[in-house]
């Protein structure tokens, strides 16, 4: 901010404060003052806070429904009263609770005794008041909310992403998001005492499952397609997923190439979870290498080394190790969120800095660590170690994937 503007504004605020104190002291306010509006439009203020509170309400609603077992119970249609009795909740609150979930598209609602044609007709004329359920003359107040004739059932959206038995279940992701909300509820404490110290083992064990759930919903399929379109896998025999976590990329690629042997390198607490996914999908040609890629050997003679959202994916000191582990004409594939995207979200940067590991120093911006550089700078450095970039593509999730081959 221009210093002169700042000084003028500060002086103006001080003058206003003095005026306010004088008015309060002398009680000289007149009725005319009631007609004075704020210079700053109030809509901006109220919209900011209302949208923030609305998001919090929705988050708490979904997490409460998950904790109470609502989605599991409504795998069979139930009325609000029957649902309240089944899961042990207040019967007066349950209709409101179900209607709120229905408004988010997480529950379907059907009226007992109403034909499908009539219900479709009500939907078609939505907005006339009656179709929206507004009280009509003669209705008792609250009749619409009581909705005694309604039964509720999990919607296609919730049935896909919330039950634990769905292949696309996001139960670990939801649990992680709830923990994140709880951390933000302690923001004043964290600001005074410093970031939360997180244990690596439990953290990575949970995050691996979150990332696997997220990847299953489109990111995995898009990434495998892009990789196979830009790398000739005909002669690829040995593949390394560096910091590969869940190992789903290796599992998918070996399923598409019967001659491929893949290795997932990650910390020991992570590779124990990788083994879970290998066993789950029967991936006999995927193996694990436990270790710390900053300190330990990562192997050699790889045709392809793949690094996706790797915490060390912007640390230059790893580049010589990666280049040395590739065969001549081998390919290095790395994907990260571009720094310009991270810088555009101060809230995300704050979120990233609210917690840390005991022996690891983070960078100030999101998803960066000590000794990290800008992703664009990291890519430029590849050429210093015999890795020549031949393609860079922006993915639909906002990340960028870069392909480089080892020059002989």
Automatic annotation (TrEMBL):
| Chain segments carrying region Disordered | 1-31
GO BP annotations of the record are: methylation
Which keywords has UniProt assigned to this entry? Methyltransferase, S-adenosyl-L-methionine, Transferase
Q: What is its EC number?
A: 2.1.1.-
**Which intervals hold domain O-methyltransferase C-terminal?**
223-306
Short name of any one Pfam family annotated for the protein: Methyltransf_2
Q: What class of enzyme is it?
A: transferase
Q: Which SUPFAM superfamilies match?
A: S-adenosyl-L-methionine-dependent methyltransferases
- Annotated Gene Ontology MF terms? O-methyltransferase activity; protein dimerization activity
Annotated O-methyltransferase dimerisation domain residues: 54-109
Gene3D superfamilies membership: Vaccinia Virus protein VP39 (3.40.50.150), Winged helix-like DNA-binding domain superfamily/Winged helix DNA-binding domain (1.10.10.10)
Q: What is this protein called?
A: Methyltransferase
UniProt keyword S-adenosyl-L-methionine present: yes
Q: Which InterPro entries match?
A: COMT-like, COMT_C, COMT_dimerisation, SAM-dependent_MTases_sf, WH-like_DNA-bd_sf
Compositionally biased spans, kind Basic and acidic residues: 1-26
């Amino acid at each position: 901010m221009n210093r002169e503007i700042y000084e003028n504004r500060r002086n103006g605020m001080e003058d206003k404060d003095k005026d306010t104190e004088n008015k309060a002291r002398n009680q000289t306010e007149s009725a005319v003052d009631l007609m004075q509006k704020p210079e700053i439009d109030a809509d901006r203020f109220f919209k900011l806070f209302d949208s923030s509170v609305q998001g919090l309400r929705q988050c708490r609603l979904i997490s409460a429904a998950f904790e109470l077992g609502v989605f599991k119970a409504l795998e069979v249609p139930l009325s609000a009263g029957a649902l309240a009795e089944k899961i042990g909740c207040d019967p007066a609150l349950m209709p409101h609770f179900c209607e709120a979930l229905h408004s988010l598209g997480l529950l379907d609602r059907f009226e007992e005794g109403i034909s499908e044609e009539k219900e479709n007709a009500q939907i078609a004329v939505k907005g006339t008041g009656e179709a929206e359920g507004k009280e009509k003359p003669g209705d008792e107040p609250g009749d619409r909310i009581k909705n005694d004739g309604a039964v509720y059932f999990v919607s296609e959206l919730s049935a896909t992403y919330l039950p634990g038995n769905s292949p696309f279940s996001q139960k670990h992701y939801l649990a992680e998001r709830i923990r994140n909300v709880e951390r933000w509820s302690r923001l004043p404490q964290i600001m005074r005492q410093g970031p939360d110290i997180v244990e690596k083992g439990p953290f990575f064990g949970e995050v691996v499952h979150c990332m696997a759930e997220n990847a299953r919903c489109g990111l995995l399929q898009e990434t495998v397609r892009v990789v196979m379109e830009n790398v000739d896998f005909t002669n690829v025999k040995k593949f390394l997923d560096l910091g590969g976590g869940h190992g789903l990329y290796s599992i998918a690629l070996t399923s598409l190439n019967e001659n491929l042997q893949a290795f997932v390198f990650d910390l020991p607490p992570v590779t124990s979870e990788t083994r879970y996914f290998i066993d789950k999908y029967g991936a006999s040609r995927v193996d694990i290498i436990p270790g710390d890629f900053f300190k330990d050997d990562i192997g050699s003679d790889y045709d392809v080394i793949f690094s996706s959202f790797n915490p060390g994916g912007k640390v230059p000191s790893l580049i010589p190790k990666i280049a040395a582990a590739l065969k001549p004409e081998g390919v290095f594939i790395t994907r990260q969120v571009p720094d310009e995207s991270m810088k555009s979200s101060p809230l995300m940067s704050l979120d990233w800095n609210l917690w840390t590991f005991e022996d690891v120093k983070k960078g100030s911006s999101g998803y960066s660590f000590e000794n990290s550089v800008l992703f664009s700078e990291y890519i430029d450095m590849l050429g210093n170690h015999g890795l020549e970039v031949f393609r860079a593509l922006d993915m639909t999730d906002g990340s960028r994937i870069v392909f480089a081959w080892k020059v002989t």
